[in-house]
Structures are given as structure tokens and as C-alpha cells.
Request: fold
Amino acid sequence: MILANQVLYFLSPDDLGATVQMLWEKTRPGGVIIATMMGSQNYYRDFVTASEHGLEQVDLPNGKQLFITFTDNRGSLIERFAPYEPMHVGYYDSVVSEREGSGFHHLYVGRKA
Reply:
């Protein structure tokens, strides 16, 4: 089993694709991947100041700077994790502080056939 929780969206789309392919090659038949991707609904999207190579520069009010590949929708999520066979595609969301907005993340569970 592969668990990639809140980490793969720091890769560019090209690097993400190469990483998913490498993980798939290392996964045994029947193996499972569980991964999350930051969704476009996440409040971080409000702080995007630039974009390059598919990574969006996020400059947060606290001075923290991040580079994120956002995932727009369910279809995009499934595409990102091909060649795994989707078993469950969903999302989770939370608002931890009134100063923050949606913490929306897509959730993907897939299997190597």
C-alpha cells in the first residue's frame, strides 16, 4: 500500500505524472494507492500570485510561500492517477480557523489490476 497524504501536490504536473508512473511500476498487482490532492476550492487558491510549469505560487498572509499543483475536479483527479484503477474518489473539507477558508482536498483510492 502507498499512502501519499498532502504531499504530491507540491510536485509540478510533469513531476507528478512521472512519480505516479514510477509508483505504479513499483506496486505489485492488487496493490493500493491512497492519495490526496489539494482542490481548487481550497482557500489557498485565493492567494495565488503567479504560475509557472503548472505550479501556482501561493503567497499566504503569514509570509509563507508555497508552490502547489491544484486539482480542479473529480475527472482531473482520476486522470492524474492513471494507470491505477479507481476504487474510491471523494474529498474531505474543513475550516479549522475563522481566519482561514476551506481546506478542501480530493481523495483518491486506486488499485493496480
User: Anything to note?
Assistant: Strands lie at 2-4, 32-38, 48-52, 55-59, 65-68, 85-92, 105-111. The chain has a mean pLDDT of 96. Residues 2-111 form a domain with the Rossmann fold fold (CATH 3.40.50.150). Residues 13-26 form the longest helix (14 residues).
